[in-house]
Amino acid sequence: MSEELDLALDVTRAVRDTGGRALIVGGWVRDRLRGHESKNIDIEVYGLPAERLQAVLARFGRVNSVGASFAVFKLGPFDVSLPRTESKAGRGHRGFAVTGDPALPLEAAARRRDFTVNAIAWDPLRDEYLDPHGGRADLDAGCLRMVDPATFGDDSLRVLRAVQLAARLDFEVDAPTRAVCRSIALDDLPAERVWGELEKLLLQARRPSAGFALARDIGVVEQLFPELAALVDCPQEPEWHPEGDVWVHTLLVVDEARDRIDDLPRPQRVAVMLGAVCHDFGKPATTAYLDGRIRSLNHEEMGVAPATAFLDRLGIHTLDGYDVRRQVLGLVAHHLKPGMWRAARDGVGDGAFRRLARKVDLELLARLAQADCRGRSGDFDCSAMDWFLERARGLGVEHAAPAPLLLGRHLLALGLAPGPRIGRMLAQIYERQLDGEVTTLDEAQAAARALLEAEGTRCEDGPEGSAGAGTAPAAES
């Protein structure tokens, strides 16, 4: 038994001893009935007014009231609430008037829940399930069904919850619920709420494609994600993509990517999954029939702009200090590199890998490229990604480019005066380091001295030499 459940049981006993009844409600009960663990415990207390409930909870630690209605209290890791009703009072996900009522019947209190499977309560002291809206039958049937058709549409976030829950639970959304979802406008949802539900779909569902297919069916893709909508019916060359259009391919890639991220920290998991979603955003603008075949030339680079717009709409930047946006855009811009470089491997030098590592995490790139290769019907050789990652690891650049050996302080020590000339010289030496010509600090300092001697009396604001020499040979670009 978890510490959270131990505390919840202590609270339920204290409520009982004070004359009330405490029930565990919501997703925790649903997951318990499915044989899954969950830490998100919510408690609903009947028969005690807010003041007495708050006094009971204060025995167990600090209690914070949530909202102006004082119907919900925060105690440690979970919420404790009075049974309550909600009525629409304004636009938006939070535009509700909440009324707590300790005498409210369970059936009425559960009516504010979104889906029947989330409207089941459990009395832990009696080990009794209370199911006023048929949620257990829907659990057995694998059905996601709205509790109250009259009020379901009041909260537009429920449409996105339907998408991620159906995929996570591997449930079907019933026809009446789908119909109501299609009628709900989603333009009142802030970016953080949209991303919160999308992240659950990407990271918690084993097959996120099921959620994306549902999202398209009920109008979420059309309303919120025009970059995804553009993939529908965008053709691909059948020889390389027998599975169909770019939308179908993207859903297969998303599922393949999901199978390759469980060992990664959360920010990197997010980056790979968003990279899978966005990787072919450049195809609608570049797809054309050339010499009798379907081509999408330069779709990597052309995908960066729509991917940026997509990330803007979700408010994606950094996560836990990790630059997710930079990685996603790098994955989009370079997702074909592993396969292309393997095909031209005799002309791809170590410097190409070191330079690419400045733009994107090469291990994440290999994982996405593997998902991209396998996200097709048919039998294709995807060994290029293993070769690519082995090369990157052999050079020690699978996660980042090598740090510069030569720093500004080294040039100052050589007698160079502060100014733009230092930056130009550092760039020149670093380019040599990326090419493998300079491998130690001593070699870097020697190269700097040679440059100074070669420059002689050239003024500091003269030619910039190779300061901009970040352009690699054709095989390395």
Task: Give an overview of the whole structure.
This protein is of the alpha+beta class. Helix 12 (246-258) packs across helix 20 (362-374). It has helices at residues 3-17, 27-33, 50-58, 106-110, 135-141, 157-169, 175-182, 191-204, 208-217, 220-224, 226-229, 246-258, 266-278, 283-286, 299-302, 304-314, 324-334, 337-343, 350-356, 362-374, 384-395, 408-413, 420-434, 441-455; strands at residues 21-25, 42-46, 63-66, 72-75, 78-81, 84-88, 96-100, 121-123, 128-130, 143-144, 172-173, 287-290, 293-296, 318-319, 322-323. The protein is built from 24 helices and 15 strands.
User: Based on helices, strands and strand pairing, what is the structural class?
Assistant: alpha+beta
Shape: globular
Helix content: 40-55%
Our count of helices gives: 24
**Low-confidence runs (pLDDT<50, min 5 residues)?**
457-477
Radius of gyration from CA coordinates:
29 Å
Report the span from N to C terminus. 56 Å
Number of strands: 15
Please state how the strands of the largest beta sheet are arranged side by side.
3-4-5-2-1-8-9
Question: What percentage of the residues does DSSP assign to strands (E)?
Answer: 5-15%
* Residue-averaged pLDDT: 92
**Main sheet makeup:** 7 strands, mixed
